[in-house]
From TrEMBL:
Domain (Gfo/Idh/MocA-like oxidoreductase N-terminal) ranges: 48-169
Residue ranges of domain Gfo/Idh/MocA-like oxidoreductase bacterial type C-terminal in the record: 207-270
Species assigned in the record: Fibrivirga algicola
Gene3D superfamilies assigned: Dihydrodipicolinate Reductase, domain 2 (3.30.360.10), NAD(P)-binding Rossmann-like Domain (3.40.50.720)
Region forming the signal peptide: 1-25
Name of this chain's protein: Gfo/Idh/MocA family oxidoreductase
Protein keywords: Signal
């Protein structure tokens, strides 16, 4: 036992010690520990002390982004692979004194941790988030907020009961291009929205989730049983551990990994709560490497008319085998213009039709007899005076994100601002996070079961007559 661990155990309060004992005894058991208040108040002058759970690729990027904010300090990390704990101590521990454990519950038990970053594979998000909120920690949880639809409400309930701040991590909405898109749409710059399309294509092995596997990966250097968690039992397989996105037991496929960013952006810009009808199709076309999720998927979603917007259709696409020129943008199309944007920039194109419809050109007019043509012209001139025939010129407005913009840091900035203010009102709270996650998880359900999924975005429930998502998607061990 290291000296720092000894110190931390000595400083445990009775309440947190009880919470840990219960959690250790029942990692997924029915009796949950009571909510305990945060043991340390964050005052405006205090540093916010964070711990990162999951120190893989995004865990490192998230930690760096969090620490780019003033008065934030990393005090602990958890990960299941020893190499990543060692790496974290070197990268963030200064003198290697950073508290590091394979067991996230040891991190949650530390009274000096105010907030945790949950950056594990998707199947652990709900468990760790709920345990963290119960332990009185603020939570920044990576996208998608949950792995299965039935896990959304328990996370929301835990967040509400805890009174803590929670942010979900689709950081692109904190970029100025997304904020400009929202401003334009809300100002009515493109009129009434009728269609949205967004894609996230790739063509390379790393992009298709075949991340490098460390040479010392073995059951001795990592905690395979804990990795499995509530997923089905499976013998040790380093590919499953380090390339977990390729397996639906642990990940959420292209929908949960990438559609989630697209739909989060759309909900942010349009103030939408979500679609009512979701249909997906796709294929495993190229990366036939043992994965059980598709590498090409298109999802069509119907958004109903609400107080925030008219009805529109949305089409999302991921193609991991697009060998052509890739242009990953979101296009929001309205009856007076279109906004095409990514994190880097935005192009607004405006075009307003004249009142007069025009005639001739590619039209039936030339097929009329001469007397009918004459009469048609006379009636047209009477109905449409010259001013009704002028179309507004096409306008194009371009917005470029400021050089070096740090949307990721800003997303954490919003989280920390709310932690300090004692507010639960982050830009991507769990209700927003779940309203984005549920339709993309429904995309998987539609794909695997070849059916249309009906969803109620207001109540966040499957529509009556549907089998509950839990019975089809979730396999409990
Ligand atoms: N917001 C974004 O742009 C973005 C980008 C990439 C990944 N992500 C999300 O971040 C999460 C992690 O993705 P990644 O690419 O970093 O994966 P990764 O495989 O690189 O890292 C995951 C780490 O979690 C650890 N881990 C697994 N179960 C754990 C547990 N129970 N307790 C503690 N540690 C555990 C693993 O040992 C591993 O080191 C995913 O949910 C992913 O969707 C978000």
């Amino acid at each position: 036992m290291t000296p720092s661990r000894r110190t931390f155990i000595r400083t445990l309060t009775a309440a947190s010690a009880l919470a840990v004992t219960e959690a250790v005894a029942r990692p997924f058991g029915p009796v949950a520990p009571a909510y305990i208040p945060n043991l340390r108040r964050v005052s405006p002058n205090d540093k916010i002390r964070i711990a990162t759970i999951g120190m893989g690729i995004q865990g490192n990027y998230d930690t760096q982004a969090a620490l780019r904010n003033p008065d934030v300090e990393l005090v602990a990390v958890a990960d299941l692979y020893d190499g990543r704990l060692e790496h974290a101590k070197t990268a963030f521990g200064k003198d290697k004194n950073l508290f590091a454990s394979r067991d996230f519950r040891e991190v949650l038990a530390r009274p000096d941790v105010d907030a945790v970053l949950v950056v594990t594979p998707d199947h652990w998000h709900d468990h760790i988030t709920i345990e963290a909120l119960k332990a009185g920690k603020h939570v920044y949880c990576e996208k998608p907020m949950v792995q299965h639809i039935n896990e959304g409400k328990p996370v929301i309930d835990a967040w509400k009961k805890s009174g803590k701040t929670m942010q979900v991590g689709s950081q692109r909405i904190s970029s100025s291009a997304f904020q400009e898109a929202k401003r334009m749409v809300q100002a009515g710059d493109i009129g009434t929205i009728n269609y949205i399309e967004s894609n996230s294509d790739r063509f390379n092995a790393i992009g298709a989730w075949n991340y490098s596997i460390p040479t010392d990966a073995s059951p001795a250097t990592l905690d395979w049983d804990r990795f499995l968690g509530d997923a089905p039992k499976h013998p040790f397989d380093a590919k499953r551990f380090f390339r977990w996105r390729n397996y639906k037991d642990y990940g959420t496929g292209v929908a949960g990994d990438l559609f989630i960013h697209l739909i989060t952006g759309v909900h942010f810009v349009t103030n939408s709560m979500g679609p009512t009808r979701i249909y997906s199709s796709g294929n495993l076309a190229y990366w036939k490497d043992g994965r059980d999720v598709p590498d090409i998927m298109t999802s069509v979603m119907d958004y109903p008319k609400t107080a925030a917007h008219d009805a529109f259709q949305m089409v999302l696409r991921v193609n991991f085998a697009n060998a052509g020129k890739i242009s990953n943008v979101t296009r929001i199309i309205g009856n007076e213009g279109q906004i095409e944007f990514s994190e880097e920039n935005l192009i607004l194109t405006k075009r307003k039709l004249p009142i007069a419809p025009g005639y001739n050109g590619y039209d039936s007019f030339f097929t009329f007899t001469e007397p009918v043509k004459e009469e048609f012209k006379r009636q047209y001139d009477a109905k449409y005076p010259p001013e009704t025939r002028v179309a507004e010129p096409v306008k194009e407005v371009r917005f470029d994100a400021p050089k070096g913009e740090d949307a990721h840091g800003a997303h954490f900035g919003d989280f920390f601002k709310n932690v300090r203010a004692g507010s639960q009102g982050t830009i991507e709270d769990p209700v927003f996070g779940f309203r984005a996650a549920a339709p993309v998880l429904a995309s998987n359900e539609s794909y695997f079961q070849q059916k249309v999924v009906h969803w109620n975005p207001e109540t966040m429930t499957m529509k009556t007559g549907e089998a509950p998502a839990s019975t089809v998607a979730k396999k409990k061990k």
